[in-house]
TrEMBL record, chain A:
Recorded superkingdom: Bacteria
Protein name: Sulfur oxidation protein SoxY
A Pfam family hit: SoxY
Domain Ig-like SoxY: 39-148
Organism: Bradyrhizobium nitroreducens
Keywords: Signal
Entry keyword annotation includes Signal: yes
Signal peptide: 1-28
TrEMBL record, chain B:
Organism of this sequence: Bradyrhizobium nitroreducens
Protein name: Sulfur oxidation protein
InterPro entries assigned: Ig-like_fold, Ig_E-set, SoxZ, SoxZ_dom
SUPFAM superfamilies given in the database record: E set domains
Lineage: Bacteria, Pseudomonadati, Pseudomonadota, Alphaproteobacteria, Hyphomicrobiales
Domain of life: Bacteria
Amino acid sequence: MKAINRRQAFALGGGFVMLTLMPMAADAEVTGDAAKWIEKFTGGKQPVKGKISLDLPEIAENGNTVPLSINIESPMTADSYVKDVMILADGNPNAGVATLSFTPLSGKAEASIRIRLATTQNVIAVAKMSDGSLFTEQKTVKVTIGGCGG
Amino acid sequence: MADKPRIKLPKEAAKGEVIQIKTLVSHVMESGQRKDAQGKTIPRKIINKFACEFNGKPVFSCALEPAISANPYIQFDARIDEAGTFKFAWTDDDGSVITAEEKIALKA
């Protein structure tokens, strides 16, 4: 095996730091502006993780248009359906991205939009069901070029 | 800017079928964060609300923030129980509304 040169050694070290930091970032509490948005949306109740699948690229080359797909497990009948889903980006100047409102006529609680992300950050989704239960999911997106001008 | 919105959905569906609807409307979605060459903030101008109804009943709607990309693309689903008309409406910050209609028939 070839001895590793200085550049590779740096890359290795960097990788290690990323590995150790990543899980912490993923489980970090939502703070700041995004937390206020969530509080307003949920009325102070704590949403639980699950039911939502949030589809975003891991690395977004252009923060101006980042495709986002969301799908929430629900029968979507008149008795049990997904009411509102709030999407937040905790690193944007304004944390709010969109609030989607479904009805039983939607058939599926599924939607796709394209969003702007200023920097590398967490995208958070909070879903409110017709029975009042709350679910959440979040994903980290690395952004190469920010999408908010400035 | 006055381009017609683009909407894609099947012409007919079986009763009870869930169809996918794709919409795209041309709009700058100026975030209110950017500055012009003189350093003045360019005022915010976005589509802040989108709504879709079928035969007068709400199907899907969403409130949009400046974090939505220019030319907002929105894709969602709808369950078809009867033939009818979809109505789409995009509401601008300045109060103007872009509207569109699409008909759908039931498969024989």
